[in-house]
Amino acid sequence: MSTIVSVSELSQRFGGLHALKEVSFDIVEREILGIIGPNGAGKSTLFNAIVGVVPPVSGQVRLRGTELVGLPVHEVMAKGVAKTSQSVQVFGEMTVLDNVAVAALISEDSLKAARVAARDELEFWGLGAFADVEAQDITLAQRSTLELARAMMLKPAVLLVDEVMAGLNEVEVDQMLDRMVSTNTERGVTLVIIEHNMRALMRVSHRILALDYGAVMALDLPDAVSKNQRVIDAYLGVE
Amino acid sequence: MWRRVFYGVLLLALFLAPTYLPNDYAVRVLALVCIFGAASTGWNLLGGYANQISLGHTVFFGIGAYAVVIFQGVYGLSPWLAIPVGIAVSVAVAFLIGWPSFQLSGHYFALATLSLLPVFHIIASYWKELTGGPAGISVPILPSGLDTLQFDGPVPFFYIAAIFLVLVMVLGRVVRFSSFGLQLDAIRLNPQAAALAGVNMFRVKMKALLMSAAVVSVAGSLYGAFLQFMDPDTAFAWTITLNLVLFAIVGGVRFWWGPALGALVLIPMGEYASLQLTGNLAALGQLAYGLLLIALVLFQPRGIGGLFSIIWRRVNRGRA
Questions:
Q1: ipTM of this model?
Q2: What is the rounded CA–CA span in Å between residue B68 and residue B74?
Q3: CB contact under 8 A, A77 and B179
Q4: Which domains does chain B have, with CATH numbers?
Q5: Helix/strand/coil percentages in chain A, nearest 5
Q6: Which residues of chain B does A98 touch, with a Cβ-Cβ cutoff of 8 Å?
Q7: Hey, what domains does chain A have and what are their CATH numbers?
Q8: Which in A233, B57, B106, B293 has the greatest CB count within 10 A?
């Protein structure tokens, strides 16, 4: 149980909005950490601050002791923290295969080798049949999955997954969970998952972090968090 | 297979052009198509492939052009020596402009490059010992030959320009289909996703900018050798940047052959218009040109290349 990423006193502001208020927590090596919270709790903002898509105003993020805050996004990726986006960021007019191959170039010198690696990764995520289709021509849920495949090409130690199950039916959710668990157990990737599908998230997470109004409300085992009164209040509302 | 035959026919058509073109004037126009087509292909490496719009590439063109004219006209040195010197100066200027502006996102790069042009126009106008000031420099008439780049007719020069165009287009094609080209494409399509895919955008853009500046500089050198004269208004003219951008957009920025196609269509059209419409009608040509561009941007923003790819898809679908 060693810490792989340590987030300390991370704050983010957008004008007058205090989107993250000195958020501190540790991510344990090879765990699956689920993140829950009402809309606007700061979940995606937290991810964006960790990888530097929108750098935080203050605070630290350390990956095995190395400071990540202040590094450009591509360097954070290279150091081993990858991320998918809730707003689904793919290259629309590029084939699904090349979408993933771009990321493979981080470790492959030749485009040919990058495409071979990309094809394998697409197979893993069930997108093999769409390799030669342009990314703008697949469904939104598939594009989300495509982002996962692309992020995995960076050979991350930690993967931040932002809402990839939206738009999936129950069978697809089960497949996605299987793939995530295998990514975690067999491929050894530490996963941090933001997800609105609570049932799914509780099933795979080792621990749950609950955010509310940009602050940590609870960080505990799934059972304990689901019984936490503050969490219940935040979700269901209190009179 | 058919692709190779097609390329072969095009190459043959290009290199046999002096035999079937009606006169020297037409050969001269085609030489200009080659020079500006190559320059636009160079601009496109960064401006088209990565959508990092430079409005200052005239400067690299002008530096290359001045290099040749200064070497030959002031120092009596070979124009061939001037080409690498032009490249070196252009690449250094490109590096200095890219270094700060590529660290920022948004339109800073376009704005920074925009500011280059007046700066170099002023330098060329006031540094009289080197550039001859506003009056410019002419190259004295020298014995004709490959070493002086002066020839009796336009045909030998046309061949030099044509070979240059082919080399630059090969470069454009190699880049387009390389891993470097894929990274440029990623930056063009979605910079945020490119960063999340681990692309070092600063380095990729810088590499493309330096390549692009070098190509445009050589094109400028050929232009200088072609005119045998250079002054600030010719070297650092707004219209050159404008044309490089237009040729690429009209031909299609996504295609390695787009800018050359744009030059091939627009340059002869402009020449024809200015031949046919003289006196009070001269402005009419400009007007028609403007209307055509508006129509193109409105109805086919991907250029002629985009039109081709739509037709190509239809044909393939018909076959399948």
A1: 0.92
A2: 10
A3: no
A4: 23-141+150-237 (1.10.3470.10)
A5: 40, 25, 35
A6: 182, 185
A7: 1-80+156-239 (3.40.50.300), 85-155 (no CATH)
A8: B57
